[in-house]
Amino acid sequence: MERKIQEQNTNNNLSGTMSSTQHNGSGRVLLDYLKCAAVGVSIENIQRSFGDNYVLRGVTLDIEPRETVVILGKSGSGKSVLLRHIIGLECPDSGHIFVAGEDINDPDFKRNHVLAMVFQSSALFNSLTVAENVALYLREHKIFADESRMNEIVSSALEIVGLKGRGDDMPSQISGGMKRRVAAARALVMNPDIILFDEPTAGLDPMMTRTMGDLIRGLNDKVEITQIVVTHDIDLAFYVADRIAILSEGRILEVGTPDQIKSSTNSSVIDFIKPQFE
Amino acid sequence: MNSVMEFFRTTGGLLGLFMETLYWCKSAISNSDKVFAQLYIIGNQTLPVGALIALFSGGVLALQAGPTLAQFGLEENVGGLVGLSLVKEIGPIMASILIAGRVGSAMTAELASMSVYEEIDALKTMDINPIRYLVMPRFIATVIALPVLVIYMDVIGWFGGALVSVVNPEIHLSFDVYYRNLSELVDFTAVMNGLIKSMFFGIIISIVCCYVGLKTKGGPREIGYSVTKAVVMSFVLVLVSDYYITRILLFLNLD
Q1: For A142, which residue in chain B has the nearest alpha carbon?
Q2: Of A153, A179, B5, B88, which has the most beta carbons under 10 Å away?
């Protein structure tokens, strides 16, 4: 990650002023700014327990660069724990996770790719405004020498998530769905190579669920970023996924395209998705 | 057995956090805005209450000691007694308890809430070190603010003692006599003694409160437990360490 931040610093300091005049005041500013490397993730036989509770029981999954994989499962199936392992917030008891071919739990591992995560709780900082929350990563890593360029990227990110003009609001003044979108904007401005969504539609109304789905699909279409989405929302899964992995009781039951999952003969998979298509 | 393990785990955790915070003090200048923000919060929360507590503590010291000393014709020593008591012991302890109760509890609640609602995790995913971003500014602000608060409370406490000594008919001293005796007995070493103690207390309070906050897991109920735990732990460690710091200062002829 350090290497990518240094590259971002150099590139942005050189080209910041020029870019700002070319794309002033549009959601395109962020889309032009995003330069995602083609990074895949390989999960090999991950096991994890908390005391006597075996949450992950040998999960193996390959995520190709630039694809959107949805990990679908019931509540308590270990989806969020798996996501926290992928981003490095948890260490597995055994098994390996490779990001761009490098084992992230190797003591010598130095992350060269940016992974961003949109948390289920949004995890916004209540003492900061919406815009300050979005700008936090850019400010702390001094990505831009030019403050106006940073503000332009932040405004653009807020515009993309449909929150143009809400930058001065405090998190306490906006709804849960808006918070989730601010968290997505905060993840986007990190210029990530992989973006992880933890239950992006949990607790949202149908309209807001559709907006989040459109956002994830839009990123896949326009930026071709690698995305991993964890959800129990079957509609969302089939709407955004290139491939779906069904997780149940800490194991991957089946992986396939939405059509392959729909025509699955695995009884557990059928039981899980059947009510949705009846 | 579990309590013993917990004791060693907590002690190790506190020392680890202290060492890591010291390491991140290297970036204090570039994060000076966060340090000043914390200093402002501490000042805002403690100065009015600190003045009130100090005024009455100085007053009650004079009220307790003055009449007894007057019985032996030693009432002119009230100034020195109030001055020394405040500078060496009561000032640092009072200020520490005030900081732990008002500022430390708020620190723990804020960090505990951030832990519970995944904000600390969010910082980690953004490659922002939570110790640098959250703990270091609070640590530096507390270590700077506490000695300043001690001096502030000492001066107001002296004034409270003087007021009671002048007004109370059983003591009946003039301001001149009170302050002459105070300035004869309270020297630079005594003031430094209190300031050194308060700096140590600042370290203890900030590290304990941040540590407990960061280690909080669960929900809103655990945030409440953590606040209580941090404040009690800070009080106990401040009072216990006060004894040992005094011993060391005596050994170094600084007391």
Answers
A1: B30
A2: A153
